[in-house]
Task: structure prediction
Amino acid sequence: MPDIRRVGVLGAGLMGSGIAEVCAKAGYEVVVREVDEKALAAGRRRIEQSLSKAIERGKLTASDGEAIRKRLRFSTSLEEFSSVGFVIEAIVENLEAKREVFKALDALCAPHAIFCSNTSSLTIAEMAAATARPDRFAGLHFFNPVPVMKLVEVVRAIGTSDETVARVTAFARSLGKEPIAARDNSGFVVNRLLVPFLLDAIRAYEQGVGSLEDVDTGMKLGCAHPMGPFELLDYVGLDTVYAIAEIMFTEYREARFAPPPLLKRMVVAGRYGRKSGRGFFEYDERGNRK
Ligand code: CAA
Ligand code: NAD
Result:
């Protein structure tokens, strides 16, 4: 049985940093790759903040925190991925960028290594086709914030083998996550339902249905959602939601997936949400609402 004790995580943004953290927490040796030192440092800081919070909340002991830090390595090079048995890609939601990096990894990694994408909406089969290992390629879709959310979607693409599905599912369980099986349709299970809801909230706001605060309060107090739709849009990242909406609209050609004009305008203005300091709401440098 190939050794998957070493895991490679591509991208240390909102999701990659959380994925690297939960893998290291579960005992895997993890190498995290980013495009440059600045992005790498930001990812490292995010993991550090999350570990400190977990220790503060009594979810983790200080010595376990130290052991987790030791299992994490950070790099701007892909070379270190040559020894990993499991790759989880969490880079920007862009097909060409993902295909390019998987193609490079295919030449570098051991033949037995399993490749997974954390994409929200892209077609897994389209990424798998950039490699010579479509049977060892699957979707492994985590939820934000990764250290807290229990769910992962395990996505079987057209070429994914039964053995890979079984191993990816077992890997998800080894992280303490609850896997559900999903088909390789854009948005899988959760985003297929969640994304139209979030886009509809923007459309309702465009139509003057209520203020941002009132819509959020309505869904929190009226439907027990932990976050209102605008809080959640800012939390996910408006650049990411916009990319997801474009991809899902292209896949299904249904108006409910189309990005509303306001979303596009906010993204072109650099209002990405919590990660850029401003989206529907404003945030301080620690990500707290002003
Ligand atoms: N490590 C470990 N545990 C942590 C932690 C960390 N870094 N941070 C928080 N926790 C724990 C806390 O200790 C607490 O545990 P208990 O309930 O046992 O006390 C729990 O997590 C909740 O933490 P907080 O009290 O700090 O936070 P909160 O109650 O304000 O909830 C939230 C924060 C979990 C983010 C909540 O607001 C929420 O669930 N929001 C909605 C998130 C959501 O919908 N995510 C999905 C987005 S869509 C997506 O991800 C898919 C996609 O493709 C776009
Ligand atoms: P993000 O913008 O926070 O981070 C993306 C990171 O990828 C950036 O730091 C960027 O520098 C890095 N990157 C770009 N090209 C790279 C490469 N070739 N190698 C290594 N790093 C590279 O985005 P995110 O929110 O973390 O989303 C990442 C992926 O996860 C996307 O596919 C997204 O759809 C998916 N996702 C996002 C959420 C969410 O709530 N934000 C939830 C589930 C899945």
In short: The chain has a mean pLDDT of 97.
